[in-house]
Write a structure and sequence with these properties.
Layout lengths: L8 H7 L40 H13 L4 E5 L2 H9 L7 E5 L4 H11 L5 E5 L4 H7 L4 E7 L11 H10 L3 E5 L4 H4 L9 E5 L13 E5 L2 H14 L5 H12 L1 H21 L3 E5 L9 H7 L6 E6 L2 H10 L4 E2 L9 E3 L11 H7 L5 E5 L5 H12 L1
Parallel strand pairs: 2-3, 2-4, 4-5, 5-6, 10-11
Antiparallel strand pairs: 1-7, 6-7, 8-9, 9-12, 11-12
């Protein structure tokens, strides 16, 4: 496992794996913008041959994230979906995977439209309920894929309990840790086998690049994923790797500020007479609140809320000024999203309605702006 000396969480984020470029002393790790590398001679290598196989900038990022997640190895991809696609390549036709029923629509789409035709079988269930997980496990179950907190209803799945269920069936546990990042939650330390991230979100933090990551703590999984990464080729480019490295340096201070803002906004939304329900992991009345406190050191800054009237949702989206009506999440700017027609359009209507992803639901990614300005913007938009 890559080593980061025993220092505080924010210090680890700031300094990364090596901390600087050992060749030049550069504090900002350089962008090695090269597709290929010169060999010293026949049968000799500097350790870098071709950037699809490895690049020094990507290597520093991968080693940094592996250490932050307490993993043995990390693999950086061109997007979060590319990372999830690589994980699915670990499985074979006839394998069954249990999946959180409340999940990002793009993940559902790649499972159903791409990997189901390759022979994989998926069952969607409420993974926040261990009994539902147990009831979904079959003889050919090879993995349990969970989001916690889930997107967009902020359900919390007990990672340790899920691991116990998976072990009894010799199945892997895969956790999408995008919403909390290793700053707030480290699933590998709780027994999970694989962690995936959309690095586009909080790790990058500035809505300026796409990235995805897979982190493991098992040598066999590492070897298999390395083969998949170099063979399929959806690797993260050097410049994008540098952007994520730069974003990680401020991850701690960003998340602390975003979470502080989110808590205040969630409480304000709860008091608004036009709001039907607020879904935020940090609210004491949120289902899974106690599990969150047990397995995470923070609640993050993602909020979903349901308005009493569907007509109000469209009005809010058209009237927000400081908050941007846009897809994605996790950046320093606050974004509001309409899941039913944006991030979760690929989810079947029956499934969406059962979960509560309907025309009244809005999802808010809280940024680092002054919280009073955010509340004022929501107040004038909701009316």
């Amino acid at each position: 496992m890559p080593k980061i000396r025993s220092i505080g969480a924010c210090s680890k984020l700031v300094h990364g794996c090596k901390g600087f470029d050992p060749h030049t002393g550069a504090i900002s790790f350089p962008i090695y913008q090269s597709a290929t590398f010169r060999h010293p001679g026949p049968n000799q290598s500097t350790g870098y041959d071709y950037s699809r196989l490895q690049n020094p900038t990507r290597e520093e990022l991968e080693n940094t994230l592996a250490a932050l997640e307490s993993g043995k190895a990390c693999f950086a991809f061109s997007s979060g979906m590319a990372a999830i696609t690589a994980v699915m390549e670990l499985f074979s036709a006839g394998d069954h995977i249990v999946v959180s029923d409340d999940l990002y629509g793009g993940t559902y789409r790649v499972f159903e439209e791409i990997f189901r035709k390759h022979g994989l079988e998926f069952s969607y269930t409420d993974t926040s309920d261990p009994e539902c997980i147990k009831a979904s496990v079959k003889a050919n179950t090879r993995a349990i894929f969970i989001e916690t907190p889930s997107n967009p209803m902020m359900k919390i799945t007990d990672i340790k309990v899920t691991v116990e269920i998976a072990k009894s069936s010799d199945a892997l546990v895969i956790v999408d840790n995008t919403f909390l990042t290793p700053y707030f939650q480290r699933p590998l330390e709780l027994g999970a086998d694989i962690v995936v991230h959309s690095g586009t979100k909080y790790l990058g933090g500035h809505n300026d690049t796409l990235a995805g990551f897979v982190v493991v703590n098992d040598d066999d999984l590492s070897d298999r994923l390395k083969l998949i990464q170099k063979s399929t080729g959806a690797v993260l480019a050097p410049f994008d790797s540098w952007l994520i490295l730069r974003g990680i340096k401020t991850l701690g201070v960003r998340l602390e500020k975003q979470q502080e803002n989110a808590m205040k906004i969630a409480e304000w939304l709860k008091s608004n007479p036009k709001v039907e329900k607020v879904y935020y992991a940090g609210l004491a009345d949120n289902e899974g609140y106690e599990i969150s406190k047990k397995q995470s050191s923070g609640f993050g800054s993602m909020i979903s809320f349901s308005l009493k009237n569907a007509e109000d949702a469209n009005r809010v989206l058209g009237r927000v000024k400081l908050i941007a009506f846009a897809e994605s999440l996790g950046g320093v700017e606050s974004l509001i999203t309409y899941p039913v027609v944006q991030t979760h359009a690929a989810i079947p209507q029956e499934m969406r309605e059962r979960l509560g992803v309907n025309e009244k639901l809005l999802r808010l990614s809280v940024g680092i702006e002054d919280v009073e300005d955010l509340v004022n913007d929501l107040a004038q938009a909701i009316g």
